[in-house]
Structure formats: structure tokens, C-alpha cells
Write a structure and sequence with these properties.
It is a single chain. By secondary structure, this protein is an alpha/beta fold. It folds into 2 domains: 144 residues, Lyase, Ornithine Decarboxylase, Chain A, domain 1, CATH 2.40.37.10; 237 residues, Alpha-Beta Barrel (TIM Barrel). The chain is 28% helix and 23% strand. The longest helix is centred in the middle third of the chain and has 14 residues. It starts with a helix and ends with a strand. The N terminus is likely disordered. Bound molecules: ligand LLP. The site of ligand LLP has 21 residues, from helix 12 and helix 13.
Length: 386
Amino acid sequence: NDTAAAKPQRPTPWWATKRDQLIKLTPQTGGRYVYDLETIKARASAVAGIKSVNRAFYAMKANPHPEVLKTIFAAGLGFECVSPGELMRLKDTFPGLDPKKVLFTPNFASRHEYAAAIELGTNLTIDGLHPLTHWPDMFRGAEIILRLNPDRPRGHHQHVQTAGPKAKFGIPLDQLDAAREAAAKAGATVIGLHAHAGSGVVEANHWREIGAILARAAEGFSDIRILNVGGGLGVPESAEAPALDLSKVDAELATLKQALPDYEIWMEPGRYPVAEAGVLLSGVTQIKHAFGTRFIGLGTGMNSLIRPALYGARHEIVNLTRYDEDGTGMASIVGPICESADLLGADRLMPDTREGDVIAIAETGAYGAVMASRYNLREPADEVVI
Ligand code: LLP
């Protein structure tokens, strides 16, 4: 029909092209994440190619696998880190890394953690008044970036909205004067302002809006040269969902840049470079028909991928073994964990699926393995790169 014909056709995803290789990589028990470095390279290069962004830092919380980090670094991105563990991972992966390629943006971090980052010489973001008012000596002579709460929550789920009156992140705009005074008193120079309003945003004008809020806030300061508009660049949850167009993000930010040529624009995407580059593979353990529902059981579940349970996130689920077969009816795809929330996808059209078939859960390169647990003492999926 006409409507279907008018829909933009998504290019064949990498995991469909490489499905024979993926089937061979699937373990007999549990699960395995596979990351396609070519896809990461392409997505990271696209981010690095946003002309109006002066510097992009990959939010490594999304996927800190060393090979992933190396691929992203080679594409020209730096790193946004939030913990001593992430700083350590960078140290191990890139001996001698220029600390200015690193942006330390923790929240509610201890004074010891800030001291360690200062010792390393990374860029520093402060997300509240406490560090400046309680540990002023630490910041004497330091250049700092202040994280603001732009009071404009965004994101795919309430749990990933990091702005607005309920958020624990950033400095509320009405405390900006106090923050400026505290920084001055501590002897720190505020060289930048930052905001990250949420995750999974697909509206291209979002980062310009954030930049405009930061620019307004910057008027009260004299040394600001950086506006960090955060991360949050979303990826589609299905073949039909709208995709974020980076050239539109660029065009939007270019208008901001035109009005504010004196500022550098920084960005810190986590999900975008890696999400679509990952699949979680697992074999089918059992099939059950109950109360009109077909349950397809996998060897791994919420212990490897918590996003569906935690955020109601939707991931595309495909039977790689029977990729060319038509769907025969709807199914719920579940894991082996003793929780009703261990539901990876409900009401999915699936082919006649059998024990031993290989199932791929797509777009799991971001916030997948890194959020896994050993609940039920089931080892979460391991990780390989291809
Ligand atoms: N910058 C800051 C300060 C952040 O807090 C985050 C993510 C990012 C950048 C990167 O955001 P991204 O570009 O990846 O959206 N576990 C959730 C996402 C939590 C994001 C936390 N902060 C999920 O699986 O959707």
C-alpha cells in the first residue's frame, strides 16, 4: 500500500549481513554480546564530523570495552568519565593519554575522587555547590566547568531524565550567583557551563536549546569559553522509529554558533556511537504455550540486559537461525531469571521458533553489558568484538 511504500527503508543492519558469523559465536549456555567495530567507527566518525561541535567526548559509561574505546578514540573523540573505575580503564587502555582528552563529570563524588582527577589533570565538571564551599583549597587555581540543571527534563524514560525539579544533577539556575561567588572565593576560574537534560533524545533542536540556556547563564561570568551541551543523542528502537539526523543537529548548533562565535561547543554522547553496534546473542532453551501466550525462553535475560525491565525499553528481537522465515504469531521472549520482569520483549511477531535457535537482541551496544549483574548467580553474557 501507499503508506508502506512511502516509508524510508532502513539499510540492512550489520547483524543481518553477518548472521552466519553471529550464529557461530553464540555460546551453548548464557549469552554473548558482540560489538561490530566497523559500525562503531562509522557512528563515532559521524559524531566527530558534526562541524559546529568543537570537541566531542564519548560518555564511556555506555560501553567501556577497551576495543570499543580504542575504535572511538581513533575516530577523534575524547572521553567523558564519571568514576575512578572509568579513569582507571582509560589509564590501562591508553598509557600516556593526554588528560585534556578526558572530561571528568561525576555526581556526588567524594573529595578523594576529585583530588585524583585533579592530580591527573583532566577537564573537570562540578555538579553542585558543595565541592566549592567545602573543599575550596582543592580548586585553587583550577579551571572548572559548572554543570547546570536547565530545568528541562528530556529522555526516553523518567529514569533517564536528568534535569528538572526532581533531578539530583547540576546546579539549579537560581543558585548560579552563589556558584559564581563560591568559585571566585575558592580561587577557581569557571571556563565553561554544562547541561545534560536526559538520554534518548531524537529531536534535533534539543542541543541548540540547551546551548541557548547555557549562553544566557554565561552572561554573568567573565571567563567562560565552553558550552557543553551534553549527550543524549538517541537511536531508533525499531526499524520504523524515527532516527536522529546528525546533519540537522549540526545545522541547529550552527545557528547557535553564529550568534555566539566566541564559545567552543562541546558534546558528550554515550549511546549514539555504540548502541546499534551491539547485539546480545543467546540460544533458545524452551518453548511454552500458556494462556494463549507463546513464551520463547533464552539462556540469558535481565542479568545481561536490564533495559527492558528497568525502562520498558524496546529492543528489536530476531531469530537469526530462521531469519528468512515469516512470522507465525506473536511471542513473549523471556530469560531464565526468577523474576516476572525478566521479559526481554512482549508481543513480538516471531517465526516458528525451536529449541537451539539463535536469537539476537539488537541495539544493545550501549548500556547493555555494563549494566549487567550476577543475579541468581547466573553469569551475564560475555563480550567479543568483531
Ligand atoms: N553526559 C552525562 C552527564 C550523562 O549523565 C550521560 C548519561 C551522558 C552524557 C550520555 O548520555 P547518552 O548520550 O548515552 O544518552 N542507562 C540508561 C541511560 C543512562 C544515561 C546516564 N547518563 C539507558 O540505558 O537508557
